[in-house]
Amino acid sequence: MSYTKRIGVFPGSFDPITLGHEDIVLRSLSLFDEVIIAIGTNSAKNYMFSLEQRMQMINDVFAHESRVKVETFTGLTADYCRSKNINYILRGLRTSSDFEFERAIGQMNKAMFSELETVFYLSDPRLSAINSTIVRDILKNGGNAKQFLPQKLDLSNY
Ligand code: ADP
Predict the structure, then answer these.
(1) Counting Cβ atoms within 10 Å, is residue 17 exposed (0-12), middle (13-18) or buried (19+)?
(2) What pLDDT was estimated at residue 45?
(3) Quick one: what percent of the chain has pLDDT higher than 70?
(4) 110 is catalytic
(5) Which of 80, 91, 148 has the most ligand 1 atoms within 8 A of CB, as the residue to mutate?
(6) What is the DSSP string of 29-74?
(7) What is the mean pLDDT of the chain?
(8) Alpha helices of the chain — where are they, by DSSP H?
(9) Pocket lined around ligand 1, Cβ cut-off 6 Å
């Protein structure tokens, strides 16, 4: 009997990857054989770190975890998943506003690709205040954001 690998996609901007993202990926490895961190690119958005830098940062963090891959995509997440035959999107929930936002996206994604399920992870309460926007603000203002970033990520390389 053949076994089909269970693959989940964790889409986001990861500008930069934080402790909160890392935690969701590590926790999802108990349900999924492989997790693809998919960096979505939106030409209307201004990123702090280039796509190459964001990919490299994720590679630094998960260098020793062969079940975690990093990819980039443009366009709709649902189309990206369909094109790769992937049926699971992973998302983190920090707050009730995350929930309202994610509910609409998850339901619309499912309307566009009916086999697509969104799997939600409740944020670790110690990490639920962490978000990339505030981390970027700290960095832009010369602060030290180390405590919010994965241990293996050394921002002085970027
Ligand atoms: P987006 O560009 O879609 O806002 P992000 O890169 O900020 O994406 O986040 C990607 C995913 O990671 C989202 O599901 C978000 O809820 C989740 N996430 C971000 N920060 C945390 C955190 N501190 N704890 C749990 N999940 C988080």
Answers:
(1) buried
(2) 85
(3) 99
(4) no
(5) 91
(6) TTT-SEEEEEEEE-TTSPPSS-HHHHHHHHHHHTTT-TTEEEEEEE
(7) 96
(8) 19-28, 51-61, 77-83, 96-112, 132-140
(9) 12-14, 18, 20-21, 24, 91-92, 94, 98, 123, 127-128, 130-132
**Ligand 1 mean position to 54 CA, how many Å?**
14
Q: Where are the domains of the chain?
A: 7-157
How far apart CA 103 and CA 81 sit, in angstroms, is: 18
> Residue 71 above 80 pLDDT?
yes
* Catalytic residue, candidates 13, 28, 123, 132: 132
Per CATH, the architecture of 7-157 is what? 3-Layer(aba) Sandwich (3.40)
pLDDT digits (tens, 9 = 90+) for 89-133: 999 999 999 999 999 999 999 999 999 999 999 999 999 999 999
Cα 135 → chain centroid: 15
Q: What angle do CA 78, 79, 84 make, to 5 degrees?
A: 100
**Rounded to two decimals, what is the model's pTM?**
0.95
DSSP letter for 125, please.
T
